[in-house]
Write a structure and sequence with these properties.
This is Prenylated flavin chaperone LpdD-like domain-containing protein. The chain is an alpha+beta fold and about 120 residues long. The chain is built from two helices and six strands; from the N terminus they run βββββαβα. α1 packs parallel to α2.
Amino acid sequence: MARVTLFRREVLGFPITAAVTRAGDDLLVQVAGGCREHIGSVSTARFENGELKIDSLLLPHHRDDVVGDKFAKALAERSRATVTVVCGIHFDSPGRDGIREIVECTDSLLEDILSSDVISDK
């Protein structure tokens, strides 16, 4: 059975979590939270001929690829593995300041993962 490592932060009164699962040498990450978790994007970062490539699937009317692509790129660069991130974070009308707080929260969550042993734990 695959081991899932959970990371959690809170912003604007709601949790945002990242569940990181090893898939052999690769990583599968689910980032979800806010007032309504969902699937808004799927981002995969992989190396092709030594160059990092990112493929994204974005559902209509969603912007979750901003977070998903950032997580996939950073985690793939650190682990040198293929990383797929499923992302769905929703807040009702957070405003500019709220969006800034959400971005800061997800950046902190990513830093938590990057500084953990889950990346190097092959």
